[in-house]
Amino acid sequence: MLSGRMPSSARSRFTAVVTAAFAALAIAACGEEGIQLSEDDPNYAGAELFSQNCSGCHTLSVAGTQGSAEDANGREYVDGPNFDQRIVERDQVLYAIANGGFSSGPMPQDILVGDDAEKVADFLAEYSGSDVDQNAPEPASPSPTGADEDDGGGSSPGD
Ligand code: HEC
What we know:
A two-stranded antiparallel sheet has the order 1-2. The protein is built from four helices and two strands, in the order ααββαα. It is 36% helix and 3% strand. The protein has a domain at 31-69 and 81-130: Cytochrome Bc1 Complex, Chain D, domain 2. Helix 2 crosses helix 4 (114-127) and helix 3 (90-99) packs across helix 4. Strand 1 and strand 2 form a beta hairpin. By secondary structure, the protein is mainly α. Heme C binds at residues 53-54, 56-58, 78, 80-81, 86, 88, 92-93, 96-97, 101-103, 105-108, 111-112, 120. Heme C binds next to helix 3.
């Protein structure tokens, strides 16, 4: 145990720094960030369609949209999933657009059809899930050599 107490001035300075950091984040979250793809990106049209038609209810940072609820307490009924945090496949997007989501929730049906729906589906399939750790360790499986099963990792070659 350390001797002495943390001076209360240091503690409140720490609190102030943390509070300021959160405030800055909150401000950034409200900003208009716009589409983060270059205009010659094949998915640019999809990003644009997404920001025009889906932004009110779905967050996706590469499209500059913030529609999903930031925290559970602020959640509104119409808020849809945050696509930074969820990976969606092309077929899932086409299904959701045609059927109004996966449940009979507040998402409207057929907001987009035909080519437009497909462009958004391609775009989302490519760019959703950016916050998901795709390098997360896979569930334990027997190693090819049968050795080192209990090794906590870090010993495999490559990535
Ligand atoms: C009025 C709000 C609203 C709009 C506009 C909206 N959505 Fe949704 N969306 C939701 C809600 C709420 C859900 C979750 C409930 C559900 O699945 O029915 C959802 C679910 C989804 C899902 C399923 C995701 C999953 O994994 O559960 C996809 C994909 C989707 N939306 C894509 C889109 C796309 C693409 C657009 C624009 C063309 C769009 N949404 C416009 C509200 C909306």
